[in-house]
Amino acid sequence: MILHPAIIALLVSSALMSALVLYSSWYGVLILRHWDLGSGSGLQLDLERRTYLISTVLAYVFGFQLISLFLLIYTADNLCSLFTGAMCAAGTFNVNGYGYPLLLLKILNFILAGLWLIVNHADNRAYDYPLIRKKYAMLLGLTPLIVLEAVLQFLYFQGLRPDVITSCCGSLFSVNSPSVAGDLAALPAAPMKAVFAVSMAATILLGIRVAARGRGGYLFAVAAGLSFLVGIASVLSFLSIAVYELPTHHCPFCFLQKEYGYIGYLVYITLLGGAVAGMGEGLLMPFRGIASLAGIIPPLQKRLAVLSLVFYSSFTLLSIVILQRSNLVQ
Amino acid sequence: MTMIELRDIRKVFHAGKSYALTAVDGVSLSLDARKVTVLRGPSGSGKTTLLSLVGCMARPSEGRIMLGDREITSLPERFLTEIRRTTFGFIFQQFNLVKGISALENVMLPAYPLGEPHAGLRKRARELMDLFGILPRESSRAEWLSGGEAQRTAIARALINDPPVIIADEPTAHLDTKLSREFMDIIARLKAAQKTVIIASHDPLVYESAVIDRVVTMRDGKLAAEQQ
Fold first, then answer.
1. Which of A308, A296, A184 is CA-nearest to residue A234?
2. Helix runs in chain A, H state only
3. What is the pLDDT of residue A188?
4. Is residue B26 within 8 angstroms of chain A, CB to CB?
């Protein structure tokens, strides 16, 4: 293991997050089994008080979960100079077999943590805990993933050895690479641009409809989720080569570096933000009929739709600027 | 009409510890609207704890409290704050006026979070102070007020948000006989103004007053006796 300060910080924070999530899950189990708002028993009143603590703790834990994705990527990018062959985070993640599974799990946990925070926010606004069972059931589903992430992260960092020769991003994200990344990089630019344009336009139009009329929430959520995948594919297919002005360089990590003005962070923040806000809007749809949430969910959904719109519009605008400014002829 | 209903209320401090203290033990009680009720009992009988539970300043360890048709013990803190602000006016044993600011500012203080225009709020506060004969002392700092003036300032403060329920904890504990009688005169005026008043007191001047509708006696955290 390399005792880099960022690695130690990430390991300690993930261990703390796992411990807090496990502690919260224990109360989640008690709530799922014993919660009864009609009862005045000591256990019920204790659970009511305890849920404030748990909710506050988890808001911070999952808030940090969102940030830690970017901290991990920044750390991997920062460490690339230690490994022969690595030129950016792509090579660092490839040093051992845990790197990419960890990254994918962290992206999944980012989305799920964001969705949990949205449900928790809605529940906390009502007076009668209408979503308490649902949010703790969600938590019990999320807890193994958070713990698995901590384990994977430990195994990944524990297996980092400077004497390992790794692959550079040029080969990992090459059109000839026999992998999903290679397949995505090989997507032809022109049709992919069309898919990108249709996907973003549809998401933005559906978002405007939801924000203006409060209708089409499920459709918008699906569109927001699909646009996230299209956005990632677009980065690999044509946005990356436009940034680097190299027709063969499809790396989704190099543009996170200072050399490119850290523009990659802006791309991924807008994409992930748009996806979480948009899918969160849809996740709240089934709860609109709950009496105590009737005045809370519609305005919250509207705010989420506007937020998702802002993120996806920013991503689209950013992509257009990248393509416009690029000297690469595609 | 029942305004407040307590169902099997129990309050334990330091629960689970060897030094746990049961301050209120299985109290069920209905308090009628627009009536004056006194909780009587010796020191340590649970009067103040019960008042703080009714006024949403503490949560019971067991049991439920209904305010009208709404159950309030399960409410998240933000809703309790709103209920405290709009439903209850508190008069404390030590009056708890904020030192360093004027009597008028003390009266206006509970209304500040509501964001009411200052001019209207100030006018209302001055009217209340005038009602209790303390307007000439409006600009005096809290620490310069006499016992009676401090008490009346505390009453005006309790009324600034026009709450339907007034809660008073040992309000005459630091007053002489004359001031205590004045206080009961004010309670009579509040009752005439359709307020529900709940007083914790072991002062005979209070629980033997003609204005009192009901006396509930407490001992060792339980209801001991009752007289109408």
1. A184
2. 5-34, 42-79, 89-93, 99-125, 132-158, 169-172, 180-185, 189-213, 217-234, 240-244, 263-283, 297-325
3. 81
4. no
- Domains of chain B, by residue range, sit at 2-227
* Strand stretches in chain B, DSSP E: 2-13, 21-32, 36-40, 62-67, 70-71, 88-91, 165-169, 196-200, 214-219, 222-227
Closest residue to B59, CB basis, from A37, A49, A128: A49
Q: What are the counts of helices (DSSP H) followed by strands (DSSP E) for chain B?
A: 7, 10
Strand, helix or coil for residue B41 = coil
CB pair distance less than 8 Å for A45 and B8: no
Domain B2-227 top-level CATH class: alpha beta
What's at B16, amino acid-wise? G
Q: How open is the CA angle B155-B158-B164, to the nearest 5 degrees?
A: 115
- Using the 8-state DSSP alphabet, how is residue A236 labeled? I
**Measuring CA to CA, how many Å separate A210 from each of A271, B4, B40?**
19, 43, 59
Interatomic CA distance for residues A122 and A125, integer angstroms: 5
* pTM, to two decimals: 0.84
- Is some CB atom of chain B closer than 8 A to the CB atom of A43? no
| pLDDT at residue number B182 | 87
Q: Which tokens belong to A43?
A: 């256990």
**CA–CA dist A7, A164 (Å, integer):** 18
Reported ipTM: the value is 0.76
Torsion, Cα of B194, B199, B204, B205 (10° steps):
-50
| Nearest CB neighbour to A45, from listed B7, B60, B77 | B60
Q: Judging by beta carbons within 10 Å of its beta carbon (0-12, 13-18, 19+), is residue A305 exposed, middle or buried?
A: buried
Mean pLDDT of chain B: 91
The residue among B65, B67, B219, B90 whose CA lies nearest residue B160 is B90
How many pairs of residues across A and B have Cβ atoms under 8 Å apart? 30
Find the helix packing angle between A42-79 and A263-283, rounded to 10°: 150
Is B76 within 8 Å of A49 when comparing Cβ atoms?
no
Is B40's pLDDT higher than 70? Answer: yes
Average pLDDT value for residue range B195-220: 93
